[in-house]
Amino acid sequence: MANESFFNQAISSWMNQNGPDSDIVLSSRVRLARNLEHYLFPTLSTNEQALEVVGLFKDKFTTASHPNRNLQLLEMGNLKPLEKRVLVEKHLISPQLAEESNFGACLLSENEEISIMVNEEDHLRIQCLFPGLQLSSALQEANELDDWIEQYVDYAFDEQIGYLTSCPTNVGTGLRASVMMHLPALVMTRQINRIIPAINQLGLVVRGTYGEGSEALGNIFQVSNQITLGKSEEDIVDDLNSVVQQIITQERSARDALIKTSNLELEDRVFRSYGTLLYSRIIESKEASQCLSDVRLGIDLGYIKDVPRSILNELMVITQPGFLQQYAGGALRPDERDVRRASLIRECLTLRKSNHTNVEGDE
Fold first, then answer.
1. Apex CA 11: angle with CA 6 and CA 17, to 5°?
2. How many CA atoms lie within 13 A of 117 on its CB side?
3. At which positions is motif RDXXRA motif of the pArg binding pocket involved in allosteric regulation (predicted)?
4. Over the Cα atoms of the chain, what is R_g?
């Protein structure tokens, strides 16, 4: 039976930890694409062949012991649609694996720092998530997992090209490194409109909260590499890290500029959003995301002192449609979700505000 915490806990335990530059960088992710030798790639395989690959991993990795991790296999065909949606909203699996395949699976670590997707676009997508800007640590973890898996299976590999993948853009290292960044000041000052094209010219790409084709809800952007061939994994990560550091500097400069030129207006915006979250009885997902972004900025700038930043990470997940319905125990109409979303936000903010105040008082 699947561990219920994967579906019932909004926040992964690794998200409760602070990482470098975590006021702007929410998380760092490294993902390695791998395929098995002597098996048709998932884009060409039959359902029977896909199930054979899942069976292989079920046999190998539910009995093999990783030196530091206890991984649990979740088969997509055994999960309810809402459970799959929750995993997507927590960034543990991709929308493609959730929507297109009942013949895939994922291996998850207890703290949800590790997610290994089976039969997505490739046989394997090895993913490691870390809080803050920790791309090098995420790469090290992913490489250790990669080496561990390769003890039991043979990868499709070419000596000249590198790792072979379903999509040509992943050939070579098979590496996608990305960071999730909260960039409200760059959005407010409209500098983001010139920064995104500049980033694209550097061989990187800026996407929305849930990757390709998604919207940047709550001013959260995903910045990742596009080039996987002709560079080492370390060079790819170093290049991305360098660009992210520049974006961090520009976001902080934009925040300082807003404080100097529009401090009262900015403070008013923050507290209006805070009031909306505290007292609304109905709130849509997009409005909730924007208000949560404003409140997070207010916490980072010191306007709001009685709410912990971690509550914003939790609310970003708990207010999404899938988790709301999972929490409710069944499907909800859009208007019912808006009512429940408002109720959950009020309850969480009131409870955490009270606990935060009590802890400070004890100290």
1. 125
2. 24
3. 337-342
4. 21
For the stretch 168-208, pLDDT in tens is: 888 999 999 999 999 999 999 999 999 999 999 888 999 87
Least Cα distance to 23 among 293, 243, 271 occurs for: 293
Of the candidates 175, 179, 238, the residue with the CA atom closest to the CA atom of residue 207: 179
Strands of the sheet with 220-225, listed across from one edge: 71-75, 105-109, 114-118, 124-131, 25-34, 175-182, 220-225, 204-207
Task: Read off the pLDDT of residues 42-64 as tens digits, 9 standing for 90 and up.
Answer: 988 888 999 999 988 887 776 55
Higher per-residue pLDDT: 117 or 350 = 117
Residues in the chain, total: 363
CB 173 within 8 A of CB 81: no
Task: Give the pLDDT of residue 209.
Answer: 62
* Non-local CB neighbours of 224 within 8 Å, separated by 6+ positions: 176, 177, 178, 179, 204, 205, 207, 240
The C-alpha atoms of residue 43 and residue 41 are separated, in whole angstroms, by: 6
List the binding residues for ATP: 27-31, 91, 125, 176-180, 207-212
